[in-house]
Amino acid sequence: MQSTFLAWLFRMPLIKRWALMYCVKPENIAEHSHQVAIIAHLLAETRNKLYDGTLDANKIAMIALYHDASETRFGDIVSPTKYANKEIAREFKHIETLAEKECVASLPKPFQATFSNIIVQQNIDPEIKKVIKAADILSAYLKAKDELNHHNNEFLHVKEKLDKKLEKLTQEMPEVDYFLKTFAQACTATVDKLSQ
């Protein structure tokens, strides 16, 4: 019997992010997951190299690649809807968990235990989840800055909300502060600027 696991995950490029907003540069969850994985890996390496961390950066990158796997089943639910109140947020988390478990169940049995610890978010170590969440926020922040650089004021309120989240994160996670000071500005530079 054929597994549908890859077929579902290969639909990630079809699922748009920021669905309720005008975007100068459209983004899908495949692109987003890739960026989150890169940022999460860099955050973990930063903690390990500069702040005496002991994180498995490669494991974190792998989990980050799959962190939105549930969206292949139900699409990307925008944050204002998903977090409208605690009850709605709880129900969406429940739906996401069911989707993650369905995704794992679509694999042949010998692979299910391994992927359950990568895809099902409730099985992920809280410290790993924290790093991936920080990377997720940084990815959204860079997206907002890029849209604003292209004069798309739809993202003004997004950046304002993310600024507050990042202010808190930089107090808790020095690697986030380091990322912002070392990498963030260049991420929205033009090719000509990068080449200088």
UniProtKB/TrEMBL annotation:
CDD domains: HDc
This protein's UniProt keywords: Hydrolase, Metal-binding
Signal peptide positions on this chain: none
Pfam family, one: YfbR-like
CC terms in the record's Gene Ontology section: cytoplasm
Database matches in InterPro entries: HD/PDEase_dom, HD_domain, YfbR/HDDC2
Cofactor list: Mn(2+); Co(2+)
Class in the EC hierarchy, top level: hydrolase
Key word Hydrolase present: yes
Domain of life where this protein originates: Bacteria
Enzyme Commission identifier(s): 3.1.3.89
Keyword Cell division set for record: no
Residue span(s) of domain HD: 29-141
Catalyzed chemical reaction(s): a 2'-deoxyribonucleoside 5'-phosphate + H2O = a 2'-deoxyribonucleoside + phosphate
Entry GO MF terms: 5'-deoxynucleotidase activity; metal ion binding
Annotated PANTHER family: 5'-DEOXYNUCLEOTIDASE HDDC2
The protein's assembly and partners: Homodimer.
Protein name: 5'-deoxynucleotidase
Organism expressing this protein natively: Thalassotalea agarivorans
